[in-house]
């Protein structure tokens, strides 16, 4: 059964993983998001919640 022979498939998997890690991933990480979470202001509620059973 040729599926069980990992000799050619392991090399293909490692080659594709290294290609992704070394070439594609740095290009993707240079893109900036349009809606950065750090740009949002935080809303702080100052009044305490009134619970009906207390």
From TrEMBL:
Indicate whether Cytoplasm appears among the record's keywords. Answer: no
Molecular functions (GO terms): proton transmembrane transporter activity
Q: Kindly state which keywords UniProt assigns to this record, in alphabetical order.
A: ATP synthesis, CF(0), Hydrogen ion transport, Ion transport, Membrane, Mitochondrion, Transmembrane, Transmembrane helix, Transport
UniProt-listed InterPro entries: ATP8_metazoa (IPR001421), ATPase_protein_8 (IPR050635)
For biological process, the GO terms are: proton motive force-driven ATP synthesis
TM annotation in the entry: 6-24
The membrane topology of this protein is:
Single-pass membrane protein
GO CC annotation:
mitochondrial membrane; proton-transporting ATP synthase complex
Keyword Phosphoprotein part of the UniProt annotation: no
The UniProt similarity line reads:
Belongs to the ATPase protein 8 family.
**Protein name as annotated:** ATP synthase complex subunit 8
Organism, scientific name: Upupa epops (Eurasian hoopoe)
């Amino acid at each position: 059964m040729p599926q069980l022979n990992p000799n050619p498939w392991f090399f293909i998997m490692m080659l594709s993983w290294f290609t992704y890690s070394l070439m594609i991933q740095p290009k993707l990480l240079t893109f900036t998001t349009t809606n950065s979470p750090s740009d949002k202001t935080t809303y702080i509620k100052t009044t305490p919640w009134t619970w009906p059973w207390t």
